[in-house]
Amino acid sequence: MPRTSTIVSLADIAEDQWGLFTRRQAESTGMAWTTLARLAKDGVAERVAHGVYRLRGNARDDNLGVSAAWLQLAPDTMVWDRTPELGVVCRWSAAAVYGLGRLPTGVHQFTLPARRQTRRADVRLYRADLADGEWARVGGLLVTTPSRIAADLLDDGEDPLAVAHVVADALRGAKDVQSDVASAIASHAVRFGFADRDGLALLECLVHLAHDPQRLHPPTGFATAPGEAASPGQQFLLMRADEAPTDGNKRTTIRLTTVMRQGLPRRHGRRAVL
Is the terminal CB of the chain with fewer CB neighbours within 10 Å at N or C? Predict the structure, then answer.
């Protein structure tokens, strides 16, 4: 049987890690792997991923899967000692941590500064350097900010309407600010038919689509030019939104197609009103 002091040390670690601990962390308390195996066999600890366990009696966290996968990236390091160099939850996984968007994901996504590989089919690792303002600690996890999430998803070519819901939810929930989101997505403005680096115009269009895709008039902040057709980028944006799953109401698709054909004129020097 493990010593009481060892169990107490392990419980202290798990308490600050959503009830989770790694085999390496258990060994750092002086516990032998055979003892850990016996605890798992007896039901005191539950194996939730390779090398990651949960102490019985702790409430199951909604982010259990991504938390366990994150611990696997640096199994020796306690949650409170982790830095972005050891991995940051990103993209749809990060959106789920914040409660943003409407697309559930069975894949755990992380950003690291150096290229790494994983044997897990449900884990995706991305190489990127994150600035200080592009990540935050949320419930103990290191997570990219909503503005960085939006930029990454657009980089990946994700469905614009799905990204729009992430952005709108973030602004509505005060999880990020308009200026930061606009700055983060500015490099995509031209691709969607707006002026070079006009992230505010792209942001307003995304928010418009997320809030009311059935509206037939352009969003506030766009100057209407009679007879002006939608740019290829704007057509692409609305066409992708049209193809995305909706609430099943066919009328939504028809009305959104109408908006696409009318076109969203280019923005001319006016700040968007969200």
Answer: N
